[in-house]
UniProtKB/TrEMBL annotation:
InterPro entries: WD40/YVTN_repeat-like_dom_sf, Xyloglucanase_GH74. GO terms for biological process: xyloglucan metabolic process. PANTHER family: EXO-ALPHA-SIALIDASE, XYLOGLUCANASE (EUROFUNG). It comes from Glycomyces buryatensis. CDD domains: Sialidase_non-viral (cd15482). This is Exo-alpha-sialidase. The lineage of its organism: Bacteria, Bacillati, Actinomycetota, Actinomycetes, Glycomycetales. SUPFAM superfamilies: Oligoxyloglucan reducing end-specific cellobiohydrolase (SSF110296).
Amino acid sequence: MGYLVLIGTRKGLFTATSDNRTDWEVKGPVILDKDGFTAVAEIYSVAADAATGRILIGADTFFGPSIWRSGDYARTWSEPEKAPMAFPQDLPYRPLDFSEAAGIDQPESDQNNTVKRIWQLAFGPGERVWAGVEPTSLWVSDDGGQTFAFNQPLWDHPEHTTWASGAGGPAVHTIVPDPADPEALTIAISSGGIYQTDDDGQSWTGITKGITADYSPEDAPESGQCIHKVTRGTDSTLFVQSHGPAYRSTRPDGGWTNISGDLPTNFGFAMIAHPTLDGNVIAWPCTESMERTPPGRQVGPWRTTDSGETWNAWTDGLPTDPYFGGVLRDGACTDAAADPGWYFGTRCGDIWTATDSGGTWNSIAAHLPDVLCVRAIETP
């Protein structure tokens, strides 16, 4: 048994492999040759399947956004001959950010719906792949990620007029499949809220009511909240890090419980639920100011074992000198092993790992480019 970590950065995809999660071999960046031209891509999303070795990455290259594919645990790569997704030509143009929504003129040549970035990839059953995209849209593939179909019902949702652009851009940035129901899905939208479907994307229900938005005229609007991350516990409890407090809910239609009491800040991005233990979640708080640095300049996660009633810092082995690189929403993960390994990457290009049994963080790599996303799996 081995372990593979996939590290998406602003200058390409790096991989780290290990037999023991202590000694690591780091390679990269992965570069694909296209028509005699090589370019390092920004990697904003990664999906990896431990059982089959399938890996998809959302690559933003000189040629535009694409999806690179591997079927052998990142040993070899390919990409579709054509762009894997394109908006319907007859789809009415929708403003992409605050300035356009506010009525600032957009050049006529730019007034179209264009795939700008692939923020999230998630495997469903069989050959199903979901993709969250900027501008705010959801796409689905039933051929393993070679081609994608546009989800019109989400685009047409009546609450779309309340969706705006977060600092990173207007996008579906989080996709959480339900392992118990292949037709159920939870998604999170930048400055849009949280939505669920139980009919394979044919209809969508907003479940964000009760999550506060101190930047909004309403304290807790029906939608429009800036959600940073959603993760699902083993008992199906949803845990949320918003642009403000963290929350949990077992029945979102009945409300949300603020669980930020012991956290050092009411702000953060990454949040990961334990693969087997109920109520066990790790979060990476950061300062709310635009500098987005770790609280007290101390890098490290905080952990709860009681669904957020209490939190404790988990910093054994991490730097104690001032640290300025935060962890982005997809910059942390678990490998879902029997003895789970935890991983996170920072905007300073450092990658760290720890296990439940070990308890101490160890360095995988240092001084890589700005880390955008991290995924880890067990390998044969």
